[in-house]
Amino acid sequence: MRPSVSPSALSLLAAGLLATLATQAAHAAETGDGTSSHARCSGTAEAGDRTPSPADPYPLMAAGWGPELGGGRMASRWAEDWSGMRADGRAPAFKALPLGDNMQLTLSTELRLREVAWDNRQLGRGNDFEQTQLRAVFGADLRINPHLRFHGELGTGQVDGQRNAAAPNFQNEVSLQQLFVDARGNVGDALVGVMAGRQEFSDGPRQLLSLSDGPNLHRSWNGVRVYVHGKRYRFGAFDLRSTRLGRGSFDEGVNSAEKLQGAIASFIVSPGDGPNTYLDPFWLRTENPSVRIGGVTGTDQRDTLGVRLWGRRGNARFDWTLARQDGRSIDRRRVDAWALFAVQSLALSDSGWKPRLTSRIDVASGGGAYGSGPVRDFNPLYASSNYAGEGQLLGLSNVLIVAPGIALSPTSRTTLSLEYGLARRLQQSDAVYAAGMRAYAGTEHVPGHDVGGLARAAANWSPTQYLTLSLDFEHLAAGDVLARAGYPSGSYAYLSATYRY
User: Which residue in 45, 107, 249, 337 is deepest, having the highest Cβ count within 10 Å?
Assistant: First the structure.
């Protein structure tokens, strides 16, 4: 018999859903159409009065606060600021509650229920199963005044299948996900601040840094982040250590051996008020004591230096990243790796289903993992699982992926996307890799370059501003290299409902 989700977790879910449903109708009447009063291509001196957009002289979409989900709502809830909506009388219940002359308290919650299914998981023949996953996160943001605030979050993750084998970011009784202080002020026209404590971090290219949204619990870090934001530039530096999760209650700790340090800048390089083109140079120094390359596990130390150019021109959108890695990997072997990520799309119409042609080209170096000499396998660090596929069937190492597709928006609350990626490995003396640099063992011994084709289909529908229903399907058709090494094709799918309040 499969274990079930704990009664306490189900109680939290039910209570959260009822509270969310109770507030939706009232808030919809207050906020109208939800259109932001602040342009996406410019900053603002005040928090949004129709959306929870924070005051920031740099454009929100490029400010480095993590993914924006639309309407000023952020994947990292600490980046939201409801004070402008409270001043305008539009804030929903439990948002920017006044506690004194300047103090405000905002409460937030996210509840995600997801049903997932694997066919030949990790391309293991017969490794088929289903699993129900639950995420429940509750947060509080206390603003002492416009210059000082504290943010904290508690999270629980539950699964009902293969619970004993689930990682602690999937099966977790309760953990302190975030607890930090943010102090900020203005120096001339610039916003200057520092964040210290346990915090989520997602800045720069998503092929390298992400919140890790696929698992039940986000990735978090411990340390210091400083930032300086102007009207046409921003700069940030950070010194962080990873959070080591346990599976029980508040048994997480700081993993001082896993480090993330560096600096990321952004400049508006296009003239005028937008649409903007952004140039983002970055430097990341990472140290991970448990990286597995070529069948050996050890410490991987890398400096990743690169630049990202992204923005929009007319009907075209583009996001291009070039990265170079050096350092020392397992057994102190020298690292010599590189990668190029090019994402672009073209809108065919701004009416009807608003079709948009998409394409993605990913090239990541490989070689040297099985032998002596430099390690040339590119390490995608903490890449977004959504970028290369939630099923994690393919990784961004020793690979060339060309993936054309199409995206549709039948309604303002609905999106559909289809993509088919053709994958080839660059070095046939090296393995084919899944996400996380997990090698498909034995592929390094067979000839050929054809890895296979990865088909992806996704649909999202948001019937209200708080609820999103999502469907995702991925299928990797094994090519010559995988087939010769004895691997079958594999599939992954999920259906999820997410409430965010």
Answer: 337
pLDDT tens digit sequence for 348-394: 999 999 999 999 999 999 999 998 899 999 999 999 989 989 999 99
Q: Nearest to residue 456, comparing CAs of 422, 423, 419?
A: 419
Whether the Cβ atoms of residue 100 and residue 108 lie closer than 8 Å to each other: no
DSSP string, 76-138: SGGG---HHHHHTT---TTSSEE-SSS-EEEEEEEEEEEEEEEESGGG-TT--EEEEEEEEEE
Tokens, residue 318: 């583009």
Q: How many CB atoms within 10 Å of residue 88?
A: 15
pLDDT digits (tens, 9 = 90+) for 276-325: 999 999 999 999 999 998 889 999 999 999 999 999 999 999 999 999 99
Collapsed DSSP state (helix, strand, coil) of residue 210: coil
How many Å apart are CA 375 and CA 469, to the nearest integer? 42
pLDDT digits (tens, 9 = 90+) for 337-348: 999 999 999 999
Closest CA relative to residue 404, chosen from 455, 452, 444, 360 = 360
